[in-house]
């Protein structure tokens, strides 16, 4: 039996098919529309079809939606809308930290549809749990949006498993995705139930910041003696053996877990978007995978 971990290239979000590497547009605010178009085209060229954004990305003087707006313009320029699975979110609402009242979520989704120049969102996520919103009210908003055809699938981000389950209990359709932070330097989803509930409920777990937001990339060192430095050293050894970058190994490590649906990369470099699929070439053994986890924990597995 092979000790190489299989890394499938595609996954599903409810009935929708998606590449296992997804592209996040948090850092896209400030790009031009034609730059946005080129980045999405670079992603599509290598099978990255799930595109993630949020109204809060780029929030500032222009208010909500700068990252969504430039993405919408870029997709319109290239006629790309029908080729992507469009993911956006609602519920982060300065000056309130969070606001998932039904009316707020519905209006937020309507505004996203306008900025993204589309009539439906393929996957709509509650960005962070609003502790003051009853699960029943959030469910009511998602149901209203889905019945109106404004969203196809629904999910959550940064929810605990209890919060996810409580929301699911108020819905008469299944949630299809969860989006937690997960990388070789942020391994909580392995033990807090995130990767388990994704398998139990058939959710596409979308790992955000799989490269630690830029800390697990070639040239990164980390503080001497830190978990990050230890992880980087193990990633480098695996990368050297596979003739790929440590960023590709970091992605492969996330994608090799059976509870993970996709890894959500955020580079603004078209070359790095295209090269990200080298993650699928990494021959990672079970021993390699656990060596990365042991480096992150600073101790051997018990
Ligand atoms: N749901 C949530 O609460 C939440 C929170 C955060 C993020 N997200 C989603 O996750 C997406 C990805 O997050 P992220 O951008 O933090 O992901 P990431 O892929 O872990 O990190 C991206 C960063 O790494 C850098 N990088 C990547 N490859 C590199 C390389 N080879 N050499 C040097 N630098 C490199 C990028 O810089 P360059 O651009 O220069 O390559 C960029 O600054 C976001 O866009 C968003 O959609 C969701």
Strand content: 15-25%
Q: State the end-to-end CA separation.
A: 24 Å
Q: What small molecules are bound in this structure?
A: NADP nicotinamide-adenine-dinucleotide phosphate
Assembly state: single chain
Largest sheet: 8 strands, parallel, barrel
* Unreliable stretches covering 5 or more consecutive residues: none
Identify the overall geometry.
Answer: globular
- Quick one: CATH superfamily of the domain at 10-179? NADP-dependent oxidoreductase domain
What structural class do the secondary elements suggest?
Answer: alpha/beta
Number of strands: 10
Give a topology summary.
Elements: E1 10-13, E2 16-19, E3 21-24, H1 33-45, E4 50-52, H2 66-78, E5 85-90, H3 102-115, E6 121-126, H4 135-147, E7 151-157, H5 161-169, E8 177-179, H6 194-201, E9 204-208, H7 227-242, H8 246-255, E10 262-265, H9 270-275, H10 286-297
Parallel strand pairs: 3-4, 3-10, 4-5, 5-6, 6-7, 7-8, 8-9, 9-10
Antiparallel strand pairs: 1-2
Bound molecules: NADP nicotinamide-adenine-dinucleotide phosphate (NAP).
The site of NADP nicotinamide-adenine-dinucleotide phosphate has 27 residues, from β10.
Can you put this structure into words, describing what you see?
It comes from Shimia abyssi. This protein is of the alpha/beta class and 302 residues long. The protein has a domain at 10-179: NADP-dependent oxidoreductase domain (TIM Barrel). Helix content is 38%, strand content 15%. The protein is built from ten helices and ten strands. The chain has helices at residues 33-45, 66-78, 102-115, 135-147, 161-169, 194-201, 227-242, 246-255, 270-275, 286-297, and strands at 10-13, 16-19, 21-24, 50-52, 85-90, 121-126, 151-157, 177-179, 204-208, 262-265. It has an eight-stranded parallel β-barrel with strand order 3-4-5-6-7-8-9-10, surrounded by four helices. A two-stranded antiparallel sheet has the order 1-2. Helix 1 crosses helix 2 (66-78) and helix 3 packs parallel to helix 4. The chain is globular. The two termini are 24 Å apart. The mean pLDDT is 97. Bound molecules: NADP nicotinamide-adenine-dinucleotide phosphate (NAP).
């Amino acid at each position: 039996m092979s000790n190489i971990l299989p890394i499938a290239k595609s996954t599903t979000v409810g009935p929708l098919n998606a590449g296992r590497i997804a592209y996040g547009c948090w850092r896209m605010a400030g790009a031009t529309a034609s730059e946005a178009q080129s980045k999405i085209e670079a992603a599509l060229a290598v099978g990255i079809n799930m595109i993630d954004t949020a109204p809060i990305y780029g929030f500032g003087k222009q208010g909500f939606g700068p990252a969504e707006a430039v993405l919408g313009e870029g997709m319109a320029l290239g006629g790309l809308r029908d080729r992507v699975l469009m993911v956006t979110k609602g519920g982060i609402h300065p000056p309130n930290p969070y606001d998932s009242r039904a009316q707020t979520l519905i209006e937020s989704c309507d505004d996203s549809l306008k900025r993204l120049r589309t009539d439906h969102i393929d996957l709509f996520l509650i960005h962070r749990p609003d502790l003051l919103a009853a699960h029943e009210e959030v469910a009511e908003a998602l149901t209203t949006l889905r019945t109106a055809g404004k969203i196809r699938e629904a999910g959550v981000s940064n929810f605990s498993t209890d919060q996810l389950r409580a929301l699911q209990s108020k819905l008469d359709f299944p949630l299809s995705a969860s989006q937690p932070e997960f990388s070789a330097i942020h391994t909580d989803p392995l033990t807090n139930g995130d990767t388990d509930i994704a398998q139990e409920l058939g959710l596409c777990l979308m790992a955000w910041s799989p490269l630690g937001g830029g800390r697990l990339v070639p040239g990164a060192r980390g503080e001497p003696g830190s978990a990050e430095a230890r992880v980087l050293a193990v990633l480098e050894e695996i990368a050297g053996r596979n003739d790929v970058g440590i960023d590709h190994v970091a992605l492969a490590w996330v994608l090799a877990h059976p509870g993970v649906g996709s890894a959500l990369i955020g580079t603004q470099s078209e070359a790095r978007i295209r090269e990200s699929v080298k993650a699928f070439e990494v021959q990672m053994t079970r021993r390699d995978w656990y060596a990365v986890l042991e480096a992150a924990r600073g101790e051997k597995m018990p």
